[in-house]
């Protein structure tokens, strides 16, 4: 089935007044348009952001009040934002409301944080203090899987720290972010938060703009490398969250039926389009068929449909290129000898729907195991040796998260401690607190988001020395 194309020809990127089509993934058809910002307009946009920074950085109490006011406004606007988010992203409406709630909660959390002045005690008759200063205009570049939540994960700590923000959403999901930006900006001084939408090279130009002092990006590894290279020209700070290939290791004492629901939804929430979702399962060989069948039963009964339909549990894949990637990964796994215990095919209906898929008998070197499939497909692999399972879980270029599942919590924690990743869970997966650091290792990223670490990532130290007595 070929995705429907827009009925009109969009203007060339960067044309004055140009707009581009936004597609509803549940139909494959355009339903709205968004402004296609000219890259050459960024000089003026970043310049205004820098001018606004002078006043915004000066009053921490006013910043906290503004963020709290904006958080209330975001929640109040939920009935307007949520359906729009579902139309352009595809997720069930309840999940869109949950994303809005998380967005508001993050804003409140960072409104309550403030950097602490630290005294330097080194035995000298000098009083040294470490104070913290904001960086300046921040560029935030956000993907399409959680556009609002990830936007707030970038702009909330940046604004709380006293920076201004120029935020660019994915061209697949620009509309809800534009609406969110208008709601938040109403509580802020002019040009403190600016939303720019458009196709490439807008994002590349924003990341490389000499007036930007911090670039925070979530997306693919190749694009993250390009973002870092662009920011290097002006030596801007970079924070990169570049995805994951999280493994779940099931231990011999695991109760398969007890954990099956949690394990399934840890992989398939948001149609599997979650950077820290479970993307591979390693099960003891004697339990592997039970695990495959328990997960396959849930895949076969999950309700797949348009996000606005009240009974939908899984929506469509967000966009045609991503759907094609999911199809390629699955087809390769099946060609390599894998077996689809459930799914394994695109659904025969309009839109970008793919059947929830559980794969068995997949070779460990198959792309669906080695790479981040980022869709509703989950391979289950047997192991004979726990050491071998840990080695296989760590044998990836990614290092975002991982989990261990079993009855003996002490043993599970000991295994989790051997995982090479930024966050490890026991008997659950992909759950985060606003107060914790979120970071990956290896190709999963650079820098830290979340908690106080996210705030300090948007600040620089400023040291003041003064003698204890007049010299």
UniProtKB/TrEMBL annotation:
It holds the Pfam family Aldedh. The active site is at 241. The keyword Oxidoreductase applies. SUPFAM superfamilies: ALDH-like (SSF53720). It comes from the Bacteria. Keywords: Oxidoreductase. Residues 18-455 form the Aldehyde dehydrogenase domain. Belongs to the aldehyde dehydrogenase family. This is Aldehyde dehydrogenase family protein. It comes from Streptomyces amakusaensis.
């Amino acid at each position: 089935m070929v995705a429907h194309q827009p009925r009109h020809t969009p203007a060339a990127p960067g044309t004055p007044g140009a707009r581009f089509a936004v597609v509803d993934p549940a139909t494959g058809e355009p339903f709205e348009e968004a402004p296609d910002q000219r890259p050459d307009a960024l000089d003026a946009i970043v310049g205004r952001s820098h001018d606004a920074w002078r006043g915004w950085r000066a009053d921490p109490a006013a910043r906290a009040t503004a963020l709290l006011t904006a958080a209330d406004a975001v929640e109040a606007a939920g009935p307007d934002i949520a359906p729009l988010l579902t139309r352009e992203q595809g997720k069930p409406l309840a999940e869109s409301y949950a994303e809005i709630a998380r967005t508001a909660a993050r804003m409140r959390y960072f409104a309550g944080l403030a950097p602490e002045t630290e005294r330097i005690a080194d035995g000298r008759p000098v009083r040294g203090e470490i104070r913290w200063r904001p960086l300046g205009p921040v560029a935030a570049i956000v993907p399409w899987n959680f556009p609002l939540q990830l936007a707030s994960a970038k702009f909330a700590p940046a604004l709380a720290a006293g920076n201004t923000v120029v935020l660019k959403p994915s061209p697949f999901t620009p509309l809800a972010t534009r609406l969110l930006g208008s709601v938040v900006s109403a509580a802020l001084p002019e040009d403190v938060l600016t939303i720019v939408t458009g196709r490439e090279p807008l994002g590349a130009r924003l990341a490389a703009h000499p007036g930007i002092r911090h670039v925070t990006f979530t997306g693919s590894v190749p694009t993250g490398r390009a973002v870092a290279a662009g920011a290097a020209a002006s030596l801007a700070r970079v924070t990169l969250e570049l995805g994951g290939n999280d493994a779940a290791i099931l231990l011999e004492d695991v109760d398969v039926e007890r954990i099956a629901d949690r394990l399934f939804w840890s992989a398939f929430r948001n149609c599997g389009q979650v950077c820290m979702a479970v993307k591979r399962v390693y099960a003891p060989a004697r339990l592997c068929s039970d695990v495959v069948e328990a997960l396959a039963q849930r895949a076969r009964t999950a309700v797949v449909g348009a996000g606005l339909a009240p009974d939908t549990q899984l929506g469509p894949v967000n966009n045609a290129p991503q759907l094609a990637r999911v199809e390629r990964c699955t087809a390769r796994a099946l060609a390599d000898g894998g077996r689809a215990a459930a799914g394994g095919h695109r659904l025969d209906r309009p839109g970008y729907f793919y059947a929830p898929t559980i794969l068995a008998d997949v070779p460990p070197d198959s792309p669906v195991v080695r790479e981040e499939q980022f869709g509703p497909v989950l391979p289950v692999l047997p192991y004979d040796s726990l050491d071998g399972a840990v080695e296989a879980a760590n044998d990836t270029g990614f290092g975002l998260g991982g989990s261990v599942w079993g009855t003996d919590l002490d043993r599970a924690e000991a295994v989790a401690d051997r995982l090479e990743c930024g966050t490890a869970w026991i008997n659950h997966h992909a759950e985060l607190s606003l107060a914790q650091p979120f970071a990956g290792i290896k190709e999963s990223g650079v820098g830290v988001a979340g908690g106080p670490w996210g705030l300090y990532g948007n600040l620089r130290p400023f040291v003041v020395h003064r003698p204890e007595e007049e010299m």
